[in-house]
Every structure is written in C-alpha cells, then in structure tokens.
Input
Amino acid sequence: MQKSLDLFLPVLIENAHRHLTQRLTEALAAEGMQPDFWRVLFVLGDEKGKTMGDLADSLSMNPPKVSKLMDKMVSKGLVLRKADEDDNRRILAYITDKGLSALARMHEPVERFESELQEKLGLASHKQLQKLLIKLHDEA
Output
C-alpha cells in the first residue's frame, strides 16, 4: 500500500525546513542579514578562531559552501580570515566588531522567531521535536 507523499517523513522534514527557513529569512531581512550569516556569526561569536573545517562541521555544511559564504561575509566586513599564530599553514575565521554588532542586532528577531515556534508547538512538543531531530542528525 502506497502512502501519500505528504506523509513521507523526508518530504515532511524538507517542506518544514523550507517553510522555516523562509520565515527566518523574513525575520532577519530587516537587519539585512540571511540565516546562513546568522549561523556563521553565532558559531564565531565566542571570538575564538575557527578553521573552515571546524565551521563546516559546526554548521553541517560542505566546505565549499562555507568558503563561498565566508567570501561574502568577508566582503561585508562581518568576518575575517587570519593565519593561525601557532601554525601559519592554517587559516582561521574570526568575527569582526561589525559582525558582533550584527549578531547582537539579530538576537531579538531570532529569539522572537524561536519563541513563536515554541508557542505554536507547545513547550513539551518543542523540546520533543528538538530531541528527535538531534537524534536523526546524530544517527545520520
């Protein structure tokens, strides 16, 4: 028996991803930012340099996509690349003061977006969905 495509879990997850990404994009538009910029700035927000590989792992992105994203963000002055002081062969990415400022401005719209999701799902369902998605990711 064939089930509806709309009930196929990978399709449901992909559709939810598209919808949520579009809503987050709209939430960040007032700051002139996009979700991927926020994700990179969030990871670099601890002000400790990260290699492109570390960023790719943290963001669950492939390295070429991270590299292209970094190029855009460097040109906007949000991040910079710098040789590692301990090993000149390694290039580290750092958040700039402009990037820290942008990250601070994005905090409120991102938190509001997350709160709206939590309100829509209810606290228990929100936490359960987080756990299930983390489990799916960790087992992939």
Observations:
- Residues 25 and 35 are 6 Å apart (CA to CA).
- Residues 5-139 form a domain with the Arc Repressor Mutant, subunit A fold (CATH 1.10.10.10).
- The mean pLDDT is 92.
